[in-house]
């Protein structure tokens, strides 16, 4: 608490490992061990992120390390996101996505949230099956104390998050009064796979993916249908939001005469879009 204001790290990360995650499988996968060849999560984009020349990568994101950071920084809490798990949307098998999301959430709850209430978990949601994702969100919030649900910014589903198929997730989040978050990291399918360095890819992968999802969510009228819904866009900065407000307003003026255009008024004037509750970015 600083000057009477709570201060949190709103986008902290953990480094989940296969060896730890496989201890948290449920159902028929309980006790299952990997063959050692394949990883639980797909690669984010094919780049060797864990191997950087001249930099020793050590897992400094355990609960003890986060507690030390919170106390040393004199902040109140840290909201924790996955690292490898940001690629959940690349999983092709919906059933496996559900298994993996529950496994990760079990691991995060046991290894972090249970250790210290200042460590706030964000639940992975298997968006491949929105009904299951809604149930997973309820389980994570009600049973595990998670504070939000994560929508992977890039998926292989060939539809944006404005699509009506995702409405069960929004309905559940609104009823639970918890935010959803869109977090980038994956660059597949965004049109710049030809770029030749990781720095080029990393420059674009977070904002471009989130611009796509924001456009889908806003112009498909999600906030008209779910006026109390809150969605955060993480790790892409905030400077792109005013630009997108202008772009979305322009399209509203052009398209509003279409018979089934879903928005009731300009995006930038909708309280539910660009002021709480609604969209925020970090």
Please identify the structural class as seen in this structure.
Answer: alpha/beta
End-to-end separation in angstroms reads 20 Å
Mean pLDDT: 88
Main sheet?
7 strands, parallel
Strand content: 5-15%
Specify the number of helices: 9
Order of strands, main sheet, comes to: 1-2-3-4-5-6-7
N-to-C SSE series? EHHEHEHEHEHHEHHE
The 3D shape can be described as globular
Radius of gyration equals 19 Å
- DSSP E strands, number: 7
Fraction of residues in H or I helices: 25-40%
Low-confidence stretches: none
Could you characterize the architecture of this molecule?
This protein has 282 residues and is an alpha/beta fold. Helix 3 (94-113) packs parallel to helix 4, helix 4 (130-144) packs parallel to helix 5 and helix 6 packs across helix 8 (240-255). It has helices spanning 18-21, 63-73, 94-113, 130-144, 167-176, 198-219, 222-225, 240-255, 271-274, and strands at residues 8-13, 77-81, 119-124, 148-152, 180-183, 231-234, 279-281. The protein is globular and about 55 Å long. The longest helix is centred in the last third of the chain and has 22 residues, at 198-219.
Write the layout of secondary structure elements.
Elements: E1 8-13, H1 18-21, H2 63-73, E2 77-81, H3 94-113, E3 119-124, H4 130-144, E4 148-152, H5 167-176, E5 180-183, H6 198-219, H7 222-225, E6 231-234, H8 240-255, H9 271-274, E7 279-281
Parallel strand pairs: 1-2, 2-3, 3-4, 4-5, 5-6, 6-7
Helix pairs in contact: 3-4, 4-5, 6-8
């Amino acid at each position: 608490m600083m000057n009477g204001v709570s201060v949190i790290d709103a986008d902290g990360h953990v480094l989940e490992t296969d060896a730890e995650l496989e201890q948290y499988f449920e159902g028929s996968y309980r006790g299952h061990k990997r063959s050692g060849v394949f990883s639980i999560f797909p690669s984010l984009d094919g780049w060797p992120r864990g191997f950087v020349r001249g930099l020793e990568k050590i897992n400094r994101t355990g609960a003890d390390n986060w507690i030390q950071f919170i106390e040393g920084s004199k902040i109140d809490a840290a909201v924790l996101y996955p690292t490898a798990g940001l690629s959940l949307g690349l999983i092709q098998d919906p059933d496996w996505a559900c298994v993996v999301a529950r496994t990760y959430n079990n691991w995060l709850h046991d290894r972090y949230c249970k250790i210290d209430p200042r460590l706030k978990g964000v639940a992975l949601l298997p968006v491949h099956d929105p009904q299951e994702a809604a149930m997973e969100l309820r389980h994570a919030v009600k049973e595990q104390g998670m504070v939000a649900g994560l929508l992977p910014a890039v998926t292989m589903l060939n539809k944006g998050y404005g699509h009506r198929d995702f409405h069960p997730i929004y309905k559940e989040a609104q009823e639970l009064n918890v935010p959803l978050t869109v977090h980038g990291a994956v660059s597949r399918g965004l049109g710049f796979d030809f770029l030749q360095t990781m720095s080029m890819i990393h420059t674009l992968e977070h904002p471009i993916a989130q611009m796509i999802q924001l456009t889908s969510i806003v112009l498909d009228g999600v906030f008209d249908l779910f006026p109390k819904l809150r969605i955060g866009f993480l790790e892409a900065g905030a400077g792109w939001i005013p630009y997108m407000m202008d772009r979305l307003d322009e399209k509203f003026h052009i398209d509003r005469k279409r018979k089934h255009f879903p928005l009731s008024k300009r995006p930038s004037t909708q309280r539910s879009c660009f002021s709480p509750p609604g969209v925020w970015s970090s």
